[in-house]
Amino acid sequence: MITPSQTVGPFFGYALPYDAGSEVVPGWRPDAIRVRGRVLDGAGEPLPDALVEIWQADENGEIARRPGGIARGGHDFAGFGRCGTDADGGYWFSTVKPGAAGDSAPYIAVLVFARGLLKPVFTRLYFPEDEAAHATDPLLGAVPDDRRGTLVAELEGERSYRFDIHLQGERETVFLGF
């Protein structure tokens, strides 16, 4: 017998978020960057009970193969972070800018879990200063020109990026199917 899928949440206040889940690296590291944004519905309203998860390569473009994504010590980098959204739909991460892995431009893989979704949605966050690498990125090459901007974060300041995730509507973020 096959059991049907259930919608996700709202249950994120228990077990999924964890202390320092937003700190992929400590913010005091000299190479730390800050990524922040909001998760918004089709009407542009914030989702206060979503969960954003990131997976990424390190600054050299290598995928972390270390156990213990939750237990990070000192300078450790596990390549994984998880942050529940606040009342304004906001999330943030302290991480490092990933290096390019393979033929791809540097990116962070982003998953969003939210009420009403049967499964998380997947997208990527690319960096605005890597425009030349975007031209040869296989995934970005498959995205229509007028939609690519939904995958590129905005530079807010030195080592600080903003990446708003629109689940539906006119400004809907490009999501990936697997």
Automatic annotation (TrEMBL):
Annotated CDD domains: 3_4-PCD_alpha (cd03463)
Domain Intradiol ring-cleavage dioxygenases stretches: 32-100
Matches recorded under InterPro entries: Intradiol_dOase_C, Intradiol_dOase_core, Intradiol_RC_Dioxygenase, Protocat_dOase_a
Pfam families recorded: Dioxygenase_C (PF00775)
Protein name: Protocatechuate 3,4-dioxygenase subunit alpha
NCBIfam families referenced in this protein's UniProt entry, alphabetically: protocat_alph (TIGR02423)
Organism: Actinomadura meridiana
Family the entry assigns: Belongs to the intradiol ring-cleavage dioxygenase family.
Keywords assigned: Dioxygenase, Oxidoreductase
